Amino acid sequence: MRISAVLLVLVKLCVAQDYECGVVPMTQWAGQASLRTERLQNPVDLVIIQHSVYGACNTDEDCEKAVRGTRRYHIDEEGFTDIGPSFLVGGNAKVYEGAGWSLVGAHTRHYNNCSIGISFLGDFRKTLPATEALRATKDLIYCGISHNYLAHDYRLIGHEQVANTESPGTKLQKEIETWSNWVENI
Ligand SMILES: *[C@@H]1O[C@H](CO)[C@@H](O)[C@H](O)[C@H]1NC(C)=O
């Protein structure tokens, strides 16, 4: 009886983790759920890759500090409702929940209500994110498709393709242009 209860809990934990695509929830890294309320219609069919420039990090401790600092900056200085991107990816290869799959974020003017914005923490004009961080992002996308948050025929672009910005950085832009579902024009 006891063993089966433990097993049940374990199964539930694993299912929950899979359901959330291994993302570190905002309740964990910020101590509260997103303050956003505007719903994003799933499945979303556009993914926009960005970089944060600031907040490069490689350890869990530094990456949590970076996402907390970014959130404070977005709320206190930018006047956003909450942290801008849908997800943030650290050099530790962890993905942090921002607005998430189903809430409208603030990452790409004119596209917030129809896209998922994934921001790599750091500056990727001259260097690439860690291989594991790139892998984690691809896994996030596949997981999003398998849970119908993302359309299977989603399109992927870099931030610079729809805004006057250097984001996601020349080096990272070149990288994502080799990814499946990248499109030159949307
Ligand atoms: C997003 O907002 C634009 C401008 O307000 C609107 O025209 C468009 O229908 C919206 N798209 C979705 C998916 O809600």
Stretches with pLDDT under 50, minimum 5 residues: 11-17
Bound molecules: 2-acetamido-2-deoxy-beta-D-glucopyranose
Report the CATH superfamily: Peptidoglycan recognition protein-like
Query: Can you identify the CATH class?
Result: Alpha Beta
* Total tally of structural domains: 1
Please describe the biggest sheet, giving its number of strands, its sense, and whether it closes into a barrel. Answer: 5 strands, mixed
Q: Can you walk me through this structure?
A:
The chain has one domain: 3-Layer(aba) Sandwich (Lysozyme-like), CATH 3.40.80. A 5-stranded mixed sheet has the order 3-2-4-1-5, covered by helices on one side. It has 5 helices and 5 strands; from the N terminus they run ααβαβββαβα. The chain is of the alpha/beta class. It is globular. It binds 2-acetamido-2-deoxy-beta-D-glucopyranose. The site of 2-acetamido-2-deoxy-beta-D-glucopyranose (NAG) has 3 residues, from loops.
Blueprint of the fold:
Layout: H1 2-19, H2 26-29, E1 44-51, H3 60-77, E2 87-89, E3 95-97, E4 116-120, H4 131-146, E5 150-158, H5 170-176
Parallel strand pairs: 1-4, 1-5, 2-4
Antiparallel strand pairs: 2-3
This protein binds 2-acetamido-2-deoxy-beta-D-glucopyranose.
Residues 41, 113-114 line the site of 2-acetamido-2-deoxy-beta-D-glucopyranose.
Describe the structure concisely for a colleague.
Helices cover 34% and strands 15% of the residues. The protein is of the alpha/beta class and 186 residues long.
